[in-house]
Amino acid sequence: MADVVRIWQPWTRFPRSVPPAFGRVAAELQGPVFPSWINGRGSPVINTGDPINLINYFIEYLLREKLSVPAARIDTASFDDNSAYAGSLFLNSDIRTNAFALFDQLAAQAAGIYVRANGFHRFININDTSPTITATIEWEDVQEPPLIRRTGVNEIINQLFIKHSYQPQYGAFVKLTEFNNAASKTAIGETRSTEIECPNLNDSAVTSLGTLLVSAGGAIWAKTHIMMSIVIPLFQYAHLQPGDWIDFGTSFDDHIQPPGGTSWQGGGNPEFLIENVSVHDQAIQLQGITVND
To answer: Which one, 25, 160, 166, 274, has the greatest CB density within 10 A?
Structure first.
């Protein structure tokens, strides 16, 4: 379906000939600009002709302009939800990849998830502190005992190294930025570290991403989360899809309580971001995780 997408082909004229020994030449150029469909959207408001420098809107641009996806198949509200994400998109003309693989790569660098389900395209902001709950599941709808657990200390990341500022002319990253969460290190008594690559972010965007994932208070990777797997009736919940948010009703309280709590609808109500949806005969299985608990 989605083949390799050629975004643009840059051509640059030099005032003098380049010696053969010089090798490859790189130039920094402005990418595509917004067509008229963007007018009135974004925060701050974006207009026709503005450069596209946010990842969520760049994905929407490719869907509309390069893959010819109809506007009716794009959840524009979900793409708008991340319009205030700090920092700019950085691309290079060496990118050769399947379109949807590129979307996944870009979304992950913007603290988001690109979702394509039931013919619709969405951009899910995982840093949504007040998500819209699509459905509240009640205990009487549960068809099998739910699997619920809190992630362990071994799944925490409180030190993050981000490789960025990729230079295609050398095939290498030239910057490495470190992020730490001292409170998390103290709480669990150890440093748990990992390294990721962000070839499509500029410096300010890397700072925003590293802060959100690791160094901020309550950073997503620097704490534990509740994970769940639940089987419920298909006819009643067929509309649910990856990227939706759900929670559990108080009818769960007498059967299974949230880890470390007494009620699913009390203070700090656990809200699950659906990661996977599987259909089995007349039932649907949801797998999800809390993010801002």
So the answer is: 160
